[in-house]
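Quick illustration, no need to memorize.
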Amino acid sequence: MESRQSLLFKIRFALAFFMLALVISGVTAFPLQSEVHLLNQYFGQGTAFGEKFSDVAIYLKYIQKGLDKTAAQFPFMSYGTDWLAFAHIVIAIAFIGPFRDPVRNIWVTQFGIICCLLVFPLAFICGAIRGIPIFWQLIDCSFGFFGLFPLLLVYKWTKELEGNRE
């Protein structure tokens, strides 16, 4: 059986990674319009990527057009993505509990696992309703998919740590 210190280190490392990824993915919602312009510059129509994956390039241009028109005519709509970013940061803060005491706060880890799993139906149901192409829905699903792995490890290690308590 692994030592308590070793398990704590692994749990905290995985949680720190998860929390950092959550914050980074959240704060990218603030400069959304600039980011989409950059994506178009490097992956849009007229680029090597855009020539190979024309559907993606066309969709990126469509997103840019939508964001530009919305920002010009209805700038308050960006306030929604500001709150999205804030929510990511707040959720990351919730994981301070398991970072400090993984066994006592295992429910937060379980909550995170459930949230990662719920990304899939949300992406596929709302994506279909909103007319989001399937390749973009899969990109959205990747957040749940890649978030799930560190949390499942944290859960497993926390259960080991719980059995290691004396």
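Helices lie at 4-27, 32-43, 48-52, 54-73, 78-94, 96-100, 106-130, 134-164.
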